[in-house]
Design goal:
Blueprint lengths: L46 E10 L2 E4 L8 E4 L3 E10 L7 E3 L23 E7 L4 E6 L4 H4 L5 E7 L8 E10 L2 E4 L5 E4 L5 E8 L5 E5 L5 E5 L2 E2 L9 E5 L4 E7 L7 E4 L4 E5 L14 E2 L20 E14 L2 E8 L2 E2 L5 E4 L4 E8 L5 E5 L4 E6 L2 E2 L6 E2 L1 E4 L4 E7 L5 E6 L2 H5 L3 E6 L1
Parallel strand pairs: 1-4, 3-8, 9-12, 11-19, 16-20, 21-25, 24-33
Antiparallel strand pairs: 1-2, 4-6, 5-7, 7-8, 9-10, 12-17, 13-16, 13-18, 14-15, 14-17, 18-19, 21-22, 22-23, 25-31, 26-30, 26-32, 27-28, 27-29, 27-31, 32-33
Bound molecules: CU-O-CU linkage and copper (II) ion (CU).
């Protein structure tokens, strides 16, 4: 059980509660010092940002906007973010989704810190070790706060070289009134013929998203902040993004001077010469890029066949009572919250996990603090570039095998990023002994 961490079962995804009442007040854990595993605090930061969180009805903002500011830092920078809670009554945190930060910087209310109460602040520090596309969001009452806009994007750029002529972030988010990109109803980027574009897609919603274009061949340059090895250009195929997932697309503005319209499902990003007409909206292609077989293999740096630990993460659903409330709840390995597994590892372990979803819905599984490589889907081995993820959509009746190296000590969540599912119990913990 969770008891050895003190304070009883937490409900970290939506903030936890007194007891584990699913409708209870947000939880403050008081004086818990979980790990002491923090980012460097002995030198000045390279980048310092203040983010002020506010709530206005169902809408949440950071520094007055949603999404919050796009943060761009260089690989190797020591990043300092001071979160100030101006007016979010339930409290707020920031989780650095996909950034493998030290545990105490992970921003999970009830696990790695207390939620920041109104009038309070909290300072995060971490080194941006890995170039890539990430995002940040509140991890307190997150099913409401993230949906309501309490998030932003984070790009870590490589120190030199590799840069595209245009490097654009597109956060896909559905507010109450429909799909948006970067909070707007569309994005237009001026780019000359022949110029290279890197489009960093971020899915901040609870549902799977598809993106595609009919106007140029595209490459999948990176997934979840990790480069794809030798990506080949594809045409007439969509890419999918699980909830929380990121995909970097690369393409070239056509020499003919036409624009490229990337469809994001109800909104689009149009890139091309100023004055070039918007291409017509295109139909979703039948094909989808299958990352299990995309790109070419490269060494993993560890041997998943020589695992120190093997875990099952079997997702089901059944009727039950949680705090006396009858309903259908998600189960993990047959157990219903709070009786869900704690996966115990030691530093340096090679870990294999089999995630099995027996029906009812798809589950975008998100592992904090680590990246995992996908080994197989329904027994079919991966044959492409190492498909490295922190967010993996496990569809109905699908089974994935993943592997990772346990190299980031602490207490980490491994949960469904359909945040309504997380609220209904689809949360396990990865714990270092
Ligand atoms: Cu993006 Cu536990 O979250
Ligand atoms: Cu789910």
């Amino acid at each position: 059980g969770h008891a050895e961490f003190g304070g009883g079962p937490a409900d970290p995804v939506h903030g936890g509660h007194a007891g584990h009442g699913w409708d209870g007040p947000p939880r403050q854990l008081g004086d818990r010092d979980v790990t002491g595993l923090t980012g460097p605090r002995d030198r000045p930061p390279d980048v310092a940002v203040e983010l002020v969180a506010a709530r206005d009805g169902d809408r949440y903002t950071l520094n007055g906007t949603t999404p919050g500011p796009e943060l761009r830092v260089r690989q190797g920078d020591l990043v300092e973010v001071t979160l100030v809670n101006e007016s979010v009554p339930d409290g707020v945190t920031l989780h650095w989704h996909g950034v493998d930060v030290p545990n105490a910087e992970d921003g999970v209310a009830g696990v790695t810190q207390d939620a920041v109460a109104t009038g309070g602040s909290h300072t995060y520090r971490f080194v941006a070790e890995d170039a890539g596309t990430y995002w940040y969001h509140s991890h307190q009452v997150s099913h409401a706060q993230v949906r309501g806009g309490l998030f932003g994007t984070l790009v870590v750029t490589p120190p030199a070289g590799e840069a595209a002529d245009h490097d654009v972030v597109a956060a896909m988010h559905t507010y109450g009134d429909g799909p948006t990109v970067n909070g707007r109803d569309g994005l237009r980027v001026d780019a000359a013929p022949g110029e290279a574009v890197r489009l960093r897609l971020v899915n901040t919603d609870n549902e799977v998203k598809r993106a595609w274009t009919a106007d140029a061949p595209v490459r999948v340059l990176a997934v979840d902040g990790r480069a794809v090895h030798e990506p080949v250009p594809v045409t007439d195929a969509a890419v999918t993004l699980p909830a929380g997932g990121r995909v970097d697309l690369g393409f070239t503005v056509p020499a003919a001077g036409t624009a490229v319209r990337v469809e994001l499902g109800g909104v689009a990003v149009v890139t091309g010469p100023a004055g070039a007409p918007d291409p017509p909206e295109s139909e979703p292609p039948a094909e989808t890029v299958d990352l299990l077989h995309y790109g070419t293999p490269a060494p993993l740096g560890f041997d998943p066949d020589d695992a120190d630990r093997t875990f099952e993460y079997r997702i089901g659903r059944r009727f039950g009572l949680v705090d006396g409330r009858p309903g259908m709840y998600w189960t993990i390995n047959g157990g219903m919250v709070p009786d869900v597994p704690m996966f115990v590892v030691s530093d340096g372990d090679v870990v294999r996990m089999r995630i099995e979803n027996s029906g009812a819905d798809n589950h975008p599984m998100h592992l904090h603090g680590h990246h995992a490589v996908v080994l197989s889907r329904d027994g079919e081995p991966a044959t492409g570039s190492p498909w490295v993820v922190d967010s993996l959509d496990v569809g109905r009746d699908e089974t994935y095998e993943i592997a990772f190296v346990a190299d980031n000590p602490g207490i980490w969540l491994d949960h469904c990023h359909d945040l309504s599912h997380a609220t209904a119990g689809l949360v396990a913990h990865l714990v270092y002994s």
